[in-house]
Amino acid sequence: MKLGRLNHIGVATPSIADSIAFYRDVMGAETVHMPFDLPDQGVKVCFVDTPNTQIELIEPLGEDSPIHGFLAKNPAGGQHHLCYEVPDIHEAKAWFEAKGARVLGEPRIGAHGTLIFFVHPRDMGGVLTEIMESPRDELH
Amino acid sequence: MKLGRLNHIGVATPSIADSIAFYRDVMGAETVHMPFDLPDQGVKVCFVDTPNTQIELIEPLGEDSPIHGFLAKNPAGGQHHLCYEVPDIHEAKAWFEAKGARVLGEPRIGAHGTLIFFVHPRDMGGVLTEIMESPRDELH
């Protein structure tokens, strides 16, 4: 497997609204996409474009959100995960499992509408890593 | 100011040698640059190319390295900072200061040989942020 494009950096925040204001006013972001809910993953997300990748703002959605623990330790928010693209999600899952990395659950639909999975940070140099199948229109 | 290119993601590690093996063997990185010391910043660094940005592996160098505290909290390593490019480092410093963000020290030469500074994570949504003047040959 070849290291793929960095699709986005997941940044946890207690407030997407406040973070949008920060990325627009302080960081100078010009394109901020419409926030939306991903109820299956317990998060509200919002993509902010940089010239070469995206920031994915993630806010807890619901009481069981996996982001609550992160924000308890980091109340202001912070870097949560890195997401790399792969051409085939099932091949990627088999690859990481063969390397002994703990894949967290079965592939499921992610924030960009393609299949994704996460790999345990303990097997990834301390970095919670999301692996995402590239959107079809970006493969060509 | 416009949000610039994400030059790299700084990833702290207790061992650049081990991390290089991980990025090559597990992540599939094809281009890993030669590690080098940045004694003024108390770090050894190594850039790993992804198709659209870089990972900057950072290992403590010397007893006063600012990375020791991070590794004490995160012994396996992890995401340490994000670095964005700007066309003019002094304009960028004035911009962030006018926004009330705490710039940490004066601009100094960074890992890519251009001027850089860091901005305090408490003013950046919990993200330690490096601002870097673009290399001249990438401006055109």
From TrEMBL, chains A, B:
UniProt-listed NCBIfam families: metmalonyl_epim
Pfam families: Glyoxalase_4
Domain VOC: 5-134
The enzyme's E.C. designation: 5.1.99.1
Gene3D superfamilies per UniProt: 2,3-Dihydroxybiphenyl 1,2-Dioxygenase, domain 1
UniProt-listed GO biological process terms: L-methylmalonyl-CoA metabolic process
Protein name: Methylmalonyl-CoA epimerase
InterPro entries: Glyas_Bleomycin-R_OHBP_Dase, MeMalonyl-CoA_epimerase, MMCE/EMCE_epimerase, VOC_core
Organism per entry: Sphingomonas suaedae
SUPFAM superfamilies hit by this protein: Glyoxalase/Bleomycin resistance protein/Dihydroxybiphenyl dioxygenase
Key words of the record: Isomerase, Metal-binding
